[in-house]
Amino acid sequence: FDQVLLLASSGGTAMWSGFTFLVGFVIVFRTSQAHGRYWDALNDTHKMLAEWFDAASSLAAFSHCSKAAVCEVDYFLYTVIRFFSMLSACALQELSDVGDHKTWGLLTLDASAVDIDSLAALDGSLCRVELLYQWIQQ
To answer: Percent of the chain, pLDDT > 70?
Structure first.
């Protein structure tokens, strides 16, 4: 009986403090890792959107030097800018934690100017970002 009291009085508290230190360390470490990953993902998302904005701006700047008719250049620009708008919205929506992804959950520039068949194909696609990216490249 004396050995049980000795173990409980001296070793029990040391084991409990070791255990609480280990649990506290793990919680702080994992929280720090999660916080770092969150900020990395946020920075990468902002970088992605900035790169797409730069690409759209470059297309707009270079298209003004085109020898095509002004109305054709304007139609090209209006279409490409709408595609970039839909690309950004679809990418952000894919990153969200919403279970059911809808194409029009986020605001886009006048998507009604895109033909109905293309919008139906986009709505039915599971890879909306890749599809819009391919449309922009064409």
So the answer is: 85
